[in-house]
Amino acid sequence: MRFDIVTIFPRFFDGIFEHGILRRAIAEERVAVATHDLREFTHDRHRTVDDRPFGGGEGMVLKPEPIAEALAALGIGTKAERGSSLPTHDAEERAMDGAPASTRVILLSAQGRRFDQSLARELARIDRVVLVCGRYEGVDERVNQLYCDFELSIGDYVLSGGELAAAVVIDTVMRLLPGVLGNEASSEFESFGTADADITTDQEGVPRSQHGAGGLLDYPHYTRPAEFGGLRVPDVLMNGDHQQIRLWRREQQLRKTLTNRPDLLAEAELDKNDRKLIEAFEIETTRIEAADAEGR
Question: Of the residues 148, 236, 237, 276, which has the fewest C-beta atoms closer than 10 A?
């Protein structure tokens, strides 16, 4: 898989791809990452990449011509030239059409679809992803309309530019590629991971002590020492009973998700037992809150 990053700050990425799993993936040629300086595609003495917005307003806007030339240099034509049938304005529709594609051009923007693990899995099926990093007040909308398959935001906040977002997208997608992680199961048994029915790394005859997340958050993890700061590792994790450990971990997945990200429960893959546990946790939480209120 190849990532191309179009940016006015190519040096921003110095060091980011030289550590950890990503460094090893690049060294083993499982993934390739290239940065492209947008200023190299300007034709004036000041290497101008931005201009004032039509209609007035604060800040500056990245001009369309340098970005178009940068994409052309990468062999990327307009969506019409690439035969894209994706709609022009509907971000949800054009985010992913479900079919594998050789290349996607993505505009990193606070106005884009929010990045999540599901979209990361879709992107991991693609041969090449071109990331256009916005800056200043944004990018001339015609770049989006003519070239970009969709806009993407990594969260409901505003960054100074798309470079941090590009690094996040690459790291998230890269670790889903075959052979990148030391243990292939790591990307399945984690927050936002796949459901039990979709787990592909089970070993026949070996009892599994984990549930697939199925859209939930991960369960708590512990390691040596068994006691730290006056707190002990839960006994269930040290008794060797895989079934009990599996049940405890599922309870913790549900409890942590209910506490930290209850919005995820609406889309998570839950069975009848899961829903009973959630109801019990909610009752328990209500009682604790009522007791605290009486104490005050």
Answer: 276
